[in-house]
């Protein structure tokens, strides 16, 4: 089964929830923070573990996400893993037309 971690801004929750539902219906395992991180968990460790478990990191690019420090951290972790030769691939998902 293919798997994907969705890096996104909480402000894009409506879009991301629909995307996650559609991906699950297509047979993907979807790692999404609110379902995987519990109270008291180390956020950065859970994110690393989540990215370790998946084949893809889908980065939802929006006006909100380009301002999000957490999205930047998630992308940095994914890119570092890709550079280290791990199997994760980063896929941009354009929600808004933004200048990067």
Describe this protein's structure.
With 100 residues, this protein is of the alpha/beta class. The chain has a single domain, classed as Rossmann fold, CATH 3.40.50.10140. It has four helices and four strands. It has a four-stranded parallel beta sheet with strand order 2-1-3-4, sandwiched between helices. Strand 1, helix 1 and strand 2 form a beta-alpha-beta unit. Helix 3 crosses helix 4. The longest helix has 15 residues. The termini are far apart. The model has no long low-confidence stretch (mean pLDDT 91).
Brief descriptors of the model:
4 helices, alpha/beta, Rossmann fold, about 20% strand, about 45% helix, about 100 residues
What is the topological layout?
Elements: E1 3-7, H1 13-25, E2 29-31, H2 33-36, H3 43-53, E3 56-61, H4 69-83, E4 89-94
Parallel strand pairs: 1-2, 1-3, 3-4
Helix pairs in contact: 3-4
Q: Can you describe this structure in just a few lines?
A:
The chain has four helices and four strands; from the N terminus they run E-H-E-H-H-E-H-E. The chain is of the alpha/beta class and 100 residues long.
Total domain count: 1
CATH fold field value: Rossmann fold
> Globular, elongated, flat, extended or rod-shaped: what is the shape?
globular
End-to-end separation: 32 Å
Q: Helix and strand succession?
A: EHEHHEHE
The main pleated sheet reads as:
4 strands, parallel
Query: Going by CATH, what is the homologous superfamily?
Result: Toll/interleukin-1 receptor homology (TIR) domain
Q: Bin the helical content.
A: 40-55%
- Class by helix and strand content? alpha/beta
Radius of gyration computed on alpha carbons:
13 Å
Task: Enumerate the spans where pLDDT stays under 50 for 5 or more consecutive residues.
Answer: none
Helix tally equals 4
**What CATH architecture do you see?**
3-Layer(aba) Sandwich
| Secondary structure: number of strands | 4
Query: How would you write the strand order of the largest sheet?
Result: 2-1-3-4
In round numbers, the mean pLDDT is 91
In terms of DSSP E residues, the strand content is 15-25%
The CATH class is Alpha Beta
């Amino acid at each position: 089964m293919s798997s994907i971690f969705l890096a996104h801004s909480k402000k894009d929750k409506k879009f991301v929830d629909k995307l996650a539902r559609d991906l699950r219906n297509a047979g993907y395992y979807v790692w999404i923070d609110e379902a995987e991180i519990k109270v008291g968990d180390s956020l950065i460790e859970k994110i690393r573990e989540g990215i370790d478990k998946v084949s893809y990191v889908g980065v939802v690019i929006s006006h909100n996400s380009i301002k999000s420090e957490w999205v930047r951290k998630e992308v940095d972790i994914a890119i570092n893993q890709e550079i280290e030769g791990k199997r994760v691939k980063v896929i941009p998902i354009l929600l808004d037309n933004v200048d990067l």
